[in-house]
């Protein structure tokens, strides 16, 4: 890791040598560490703070072929006021939609502080030409998206064509505009096969300009897991130490309960450190998680659970 990062992507051979020179991941150790941290408990007095922090970290997401403007507007209303009868519940971080629904979300969220994120680059497969990926991104940014969630070409990565993956990420980063939309790079870790590949893909994305690295599209199993997120958190921690640039992490897919969310918060604190316990640096990609957070929050406030139909379904 002595090669200056500015020179790493100068050729395929240099990039490959750098990525394969990263320390290998002890899979057994990573699994054990994540399992241990997953058993940590927090005091009851801190649980409400943890729940509110998790709510503020949620990217409320709808990425279905049946999405309609009405569904997106309803989701935006929920994002701003998750519990309409309790003004103390914070807003979520962002609403994530397909590019064609960005204008609807932008209009609904104008002035609220909730960001509009959009998937782009032939989500979820990533199998399209670079021209299409760049245009997809440009259209979403022009429509008002403040965050872009792109997918890497996993086929190119697994074939060892790291330079192609780097160049695509860099091109999409440029399409986000200088000082413009933040770029969240989806690794689709469920298809990367090994933790070593997850570490390499994390560094590759960060070197190419990612503002966030994200586990999954939510369309492939397994999606987010604690051990994979641990590897990614270690990567952003080490990248900051090496370069001085801080990058966020977003696990997405399969995080459904308050208990799950708190496990991830503990993982962040113990791996990357408390500086990442902020929506600017850690997000939870989810659709069903928010309702469970709201149910648990209300239980702590009132002493009873709401019925299953108390909160709107997403």
Question: What can you tell me about this protein's structure?
Answer:
There is one protein chain. The chain is an alpha/beta fold. It has one domain: Alpha-Beta Barrel (TIM Barrel). It contains 13 helices and eight strands. The chain has helices spanning 5-8, 12-20, 27-37, 44-57, 69-80, 102-109, 130-142, 154-158, 162-175, 195-207, 226-243, 258-271, 289-302; strands at 58-61, 94-97, 115-119, 147-151, 182-186, 212-214, 248-250, 284-286. α3 packs across α11, α4 (44-57) runs antiparallel to α13 and α7 (130-142) packs parallel to α9 (162-175). The protein is globular and about 60 Å long. The mean pLDDT is 93.
Q: Using only CA atoms, what is the Rg?
A: 19 Å
- End-to-end separation: 45 Å
Tally of alpha and pi helices: 13
Structure classification: alpha/beta
What CATH architecture label applies?
A: Alpha-Beta Barrel
Query: Percentage of helical residues?
Result: 40-55%
Compact summary:
This protein has helices at 5-8, 12-20, 27-37, 44-57, 69-80, 102-109, 130-142, 154-158, 162-175, 195-207, 226-243, 258-271, 289-302; strands at 58-61, 94-97, 115-119, 147-151, 182-186, 212-214, 248-250, 284-286. By secondary structure, the protein is α/β, with parallel strands linked by helices.
Could you list some keywords that capture this structure?
single chain; 314 residues; alpha/beta; TIM Barrel; 8-stranded parallel beta sheet; 13 helices; 8 strands; 47% helix
